[in-house]
Amino acid sequence: MKPRIRTLLVVSISLALPASWANASGVDPAVVAVQALSTALLKSMKTGSAVPMAARYRELEPVIERVFALPLMTRLSVGPDWRNFEPGEQEALITAFSRYTIANYAHNFRSFDGQTFQVEENVVVRGEEKVVRSRIIPRDGTPANLLYRLLEVNGSWKIVDVYYDGVSQLILHRTDFSGAIAAGGAPALIAHLKKDSDDLMN
Predict the structure, then answer these.
(1) What distance in Å separates the CA atoms of residue 6 and residue 172, rounded to the nearest whole number?
(2) pLDDT digits (tens, 9 = 90+) for 30-40
């Protein structure tokens, strides 16, 4: 299932850059996080589109909140304007962005036609971050390539960005959000996220 993309902004990750590969005897915790998300999404897909969106949202919510660094992703998606917002606005944005993220996954992963998820256990380590590679393999057709960037947040490895066939969702968010911020700051972006979330949930 292809994530909702409004702006075609392609950003490539070159895995040929210097990196060390983690091949520990156990499964890397970054891989565990991606596997948990993949399992939850596949379960959501298999329940079928007949399941109400609200129920699908509730099933995905705890997993997404656990494996994604949603507060950090909100700040990075907003960009430099973040420091100009009041603390209350920042908290409201985190809540709105979290709801939007969960609604997006609930909307996009709602049908099943024999797809499988393949998560590689080899992890690319670059400085403080890790990259986990995954694929969505359809029953027929070309697999979709996914790259997950993770950082250690409060002792747990959490996803901070997802690249879908080379497209950074984080940069897409920043491009999408910039118009609302320019038009009316944090209140306009909160309203923008709420409307998008409501559209996805209907």
Answers:
(1) 8
(2) 999 999 999 99
Q: Is the pTM of this model over 0.90?
A: no
Which residue segments constitute the domains of the chain, with CATH numbers given?
23-201 (3.10.450.710)
State the helix-helix crossing angle for 87-108 and 53-67, rounded to 10 degrees.
120
Residue with tokens 């609302």: 180
Q: 171 near 165, Cβ under 8 Å? A: no
The CB-based long-range contact list for 43-52 (8 Å cut-off, 24+ gap) reads 44/105, 44/106, 44/109, 44/110, 45/1, 45/109, 45/110, 45/111, 45/112, 45/115, 46/112, 48/110, 48/111, 48/112, 49/110, 49/111, 51/110
Residue 49: strand, helix, or coil: coil
Query: What is the DSSP secondary structure assignment for residue 127, as one 8-state letter?
Result: T
Average pLDDT of the chain to the nearest whole number: 89
In sequence order, what are the residues at sequence separation of 6 or more whose Cβ sits closer than 8 angstroms to the Cβ of residue 34? 67, 119, 132, 134, 148, 150, 159
